[in-house]
Design a protein that fits this description.
Layout lengths: L2 H12 L3 H6 L19 E2 L5 E7 L5 E7 L3 E6 L2 E4 H10 L3 E7 L12 E9 L21 H15 L4 H6 L8 H10 L7
Antiparallel strand pairs: 1-4, 2-3, 4-5, 6-7
Helix pairs in contact: 4-6
Bound molecules: zinc ion (ZN).
Length: 195
């Protein structure tokens, strides 16, 4: 799947059109406003149970960090599930060291990169680290998973309300996708009348 399509999905599911150009690197992150951007796509982790993690501070002394796992928005890209806030930081800042994110607002599923503190872990990103910077270079291929097609079709149905197959296939969200996969997904959603 192309990066341009990923950028469109990020904009649709965050409700912030500007995010498309920011994800593509055409606009600086500073252009993004201060409002929360609750993700309307898929999410993971709904536990409100606080969790204690043993950590070591700069002085190497252990301490307990208590935190709740808030649900996080996720998106499928090139066959992998990515956490949206992390993906946005990777796309816009391209950190060369490992990091974790601490959400600084209390809005569930917010994906505004301004609302996350980047905590650098002072380790260089290993070349084949699955949590490292995703390889966007092969996003230019036609490779696409059923999950990606399903998500794009869901956005299309929610936001653009197509009435015919021509409406479906002419929408820019569908431009990378094999028509047969689009048809299969529409059938699985009981939308045969659109095929
Ligand atoms: Zn927020």
């Amino acid at each position: 799947m192309k990066l341009t399509t990923l950028a469109k999905r990020l904009a649709e599911r965050s409700g912030e059109p500007l995010l498309e150009q920011i994800a593509l690197g055409n606009k600086p992150l500073e252009d993004l406003g201060p409002d929360c951007l609750p993700w309307t796509g898929t999410s993971r982790g709904n536990s409100n149970t606080p969790r204690a993690t043993k950590r070591r501070g700069r002085d190497n002394l252990p301490y307990l960090e208590i935190r709740s796992d808030l649900p996080v928005g996720v998106i499928q890209y090139n066959g992998k599930e990515h956490r949206v806030p992390r993906l946005l930081i990777q796309l816009t800042q391209q950190p060369s060291v490992e990091f974790r994110l601490q959400q600084t607002c209390s809005t569930p599923l917010c994906v505004n990169p301004h609302h996350f503190e980047v905590i650098q872990l002072n380790r260089e990103v290993p070349q084949h680290d699955p949590e490292g910077v995703p390889d966007f270079s092969f996003g230019t291929t036609d490779e696409v998973t059923v999950e990606e097609v399903e998500e794009l079709v869901e956005i299309l149905l929610d936001e653009h309300m197509p009435a015919t197959w021509t409406d479906v296939i002419s929408n820019t969200l569908m431009e990378d996708l094999p028509p047969e996969m689009i048809r299969d997904v529409l059938k699985s959603l009981n939308k045969e009348h659109l095929t």
